[in-house]
Amino acid sequence: MEEIGEGVTSLEPGARVAGIPLMPCMKCEDCQRGNFSLCKYYNFIGSRRFGSFAEYVAVPERNVVRFEDEVSFEKGAFFEPATVALHGLERLPFQGGKKIAIVGGGTIGLFVMQWANIFGARESVVFDLLPERLELAKRLGATAVVNTGEPDWKDQAMELTNGRGFDYVVDIAGVPATMRMCFRLAGNKSYVGLIANPSKEVSFSAEEWELMYRKEFYLTGSWMSYSAPFPGHEWESVAHYFKTGELKFDDSFIFKKIPLSKIDEAFAMYLTPGAVKGKILIDSEA
């Protein structure tokens, strides 16, 4: 943090902080109930207003969370996806001692898996097509992984749950095939959470939709990562568990570091199919 404005009391220049992008109106009914993610009149730093890709960004005092020296700035840049993962897990609502399937082994999926382990999951199983993601999942603590490109992946999943299906299933991929997969993996009276944003229309067959009735599972969505009091315990939890090391960060989360002066190269890479295999970190000092 470079400077503080008039009236700021909880921070000082030089403090290590992560920025919180959501700026809820704080006046609407949803905000008054503490459902800041559902505010219809919100602003958002980096999308609805300029910020993020700038050398300096001015934000309200409540839109930063402090972290300790043990937490690197690289980890600080991953606070937001880590909070999205925690918020999504709590939407289920998750309890320890049970089995969870994480469909999609990207960054947020691997954070979901780690949160589940931190809170006492009996089994945390990651499903993905890419062997390198599955290897990373095992390094970060997944009790098992399943390659969904293998013809017997369903049999593998059922063997891990003694044929019952999982107590919790979370979709992080956001494609029609994985969303349908969640219905197959869910056990009776289970919880299914959809975190990822689908990029195309999704349809279910009558047989797939019937699974929800017959299994009586609970289906819910998750949007952003905030709770009361703003910004929510999600952000403080990330700061704490990154500090203790229980929430692990892997260098492979960052595909490439690019200086702010060459940010146009980063956008060009995203326009090239298959060129980007992970997160690109824009660094003012790279």
How would you summarize this macromolecular structure in one to three sentences?
The protein is of the alpha/beta class and 286 residues long. The protein has ten helices and twelve strands. The longest helix is centred in the first third of the chain and has 12 residues.
Write out key terms for the chains shown:
alpha/beta, 10 helices, 31% helix
Topology:
Elements: E1 17-19, E2 22-23, H1 29-32, E3 43-44, E4 64-66, H2 73-76, H3 79-90, E5 99-103, H4 107-118, E6 123-128, H5 131-139, E7 144-147, H6 153-160, E8 166-171, H7 176-185, E9 186-194, H8 206-215, E10 218-221, H9 233-244, E11 254-259, H10 263-270, E12 279-283
Parallel strand pairs: 5-6, 5-8, 6-7, 8-9, 9-10, 11-12
Antiparallel strand pairs: 1-4, 2-3
Helix pairs in contact: 3-4, 3-9
Tell me about this structure:
- With about 290 residues, the protein is α/β, with parallel strands linked by helices.
- About 30% of the residues lie in helices and about 20% in strands.
- Helix 3 packs across helix 4 and helix 3 crosses helix 9.
- Strands 7-6-5-8-9-10 form a 6-stranded parallel β-sheet, with helices on both faces. Strands 1-4 form a two-stranded antiparallel ribbon.
- It is built from 10 helices and 12 strands.
- The mean pLDDT is about 95.
- The protein is globular, with a radius of gyration of 20 Å.
- Element-level helix/strand string: EEHEEHHEHEHEHEHEHEHEHE
Main sheet strand line-up: 7-6-5-8-9-10
Instruction: Find the count of extended strands (DSSP E, 2+ residues).
Output: 12
Radius of gyration: 20 Å
Derived from helix and strand composition plus strand pairing, the structural class reads alpha/beta
Q: Helix content range of the residues, please?
A: 25-40%
Shape: globular
Percent of residues in beta strands? 15-25%
N- and C-termini, Cα separation: 18 Å
Helical region count?
10
- Average pLDDT score: 94
Largest sheet: 6 strands, parallel
Low-confidence segments, ≥5 residues, pLDDT <50? none
